[in-house]
């Protein structure tokens, strides 16, 4: 009887090596690569925003209303296509943005930009502060 029990226990033992090998499967490699790429893109985007520390007043050149369509797969948002310009150290820069602001709030717009590269800019409303 003991011989039978001994053979029974031997058969149920796992044949996997312990500790498990450190070689990842191809799926794990793919998932890890995608996650690292997304993290790198996110950090790069945050660094890009962090450089926009200076601000300037804008002159709105055009504000074209886009009336939205809420239906179906091809839904179109409502908002304003804005074209504007701002001046930094005597140089004039043009910009364009789509915002869903109200018409009166458009008059409170300003630009946050990178002092080293004023073309790296974003249009924000006046109460907002540029990163310091």
How would you characterize this protein structure?
The structure is a single chain. With 132 residues, the chain is an alpha+beta fold. It has one domain. It is 30% helix and 35% strand. It is built from 3 helices and 6 strands. The strands form 2 sheets. A 3-stranded antiparallel beta sheet has the order 1-5-6, with no helix packed on it.
Structural class: alpha+beta
Described by the principal axes of the CA atoms, the overall outline is elongated
Radius of gyration: 29 Å
Strand content: 25-35%
Helix content: 25-40%
Q: DSSP helix count?
A: 3
Q: In the residues, how many domains can be counted?
A: 1
Question: Major sheet: size, sense and barrel closure?
Answer: 3 strands, antiparallel
Mean pLDDT: 77
Strand runs, count:
6
Give the distance, in angstroms, between the N- and C-terminal Cα atoms: 79 Å
H/E series: HHEEEEHEE
- Catalogue the unreliable spans: none
Spatial arrangement of strands, main beta sheet: 1-5-6
Supply the key terms.
alpha+beta, about 130 residues, 3-stranded antiparallel beta sheet, 6 strands
Question: Secondary structure elements and their pairing?
Answer:
Elements: H1 2-12, H2 26-50, E1 54-57, E2 59-66, E3 79-88, E4 91-99, H3 103-106, E5 109-114, E6 117-125
Antiparallel strand pairs: 1-5, 2-3, 3-4, 5-6
């Amino acid at each position: 009887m003991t011989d039978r029990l001994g053979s029974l226990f031997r058969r149920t033992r796992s044949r996997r090596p312990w500790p498990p090998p450190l070689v990842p499967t191809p799926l794990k490699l793919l998932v890890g690569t995608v996650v690292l790429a997304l993290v790198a893109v996110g950090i790069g985007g945050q660094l890009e925003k962090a450089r926009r520390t200076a601000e300037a007043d804008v002159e709105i050149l055009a504000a074209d209303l886009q009336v939205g369509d809420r239906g179906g797969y091809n839904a179109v948002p409502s908002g304003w296509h804005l074209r504007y310009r701002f001046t930094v150290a005597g140089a004039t820069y043009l910009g364009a943005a789509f915002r869903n602001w109200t018409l009166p709030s458009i008059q409170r717009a300003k630009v946050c930009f990178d002092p080293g590269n004023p073309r790296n800019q974003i249009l924000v409303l006046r109460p907002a502060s540029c990163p310091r």
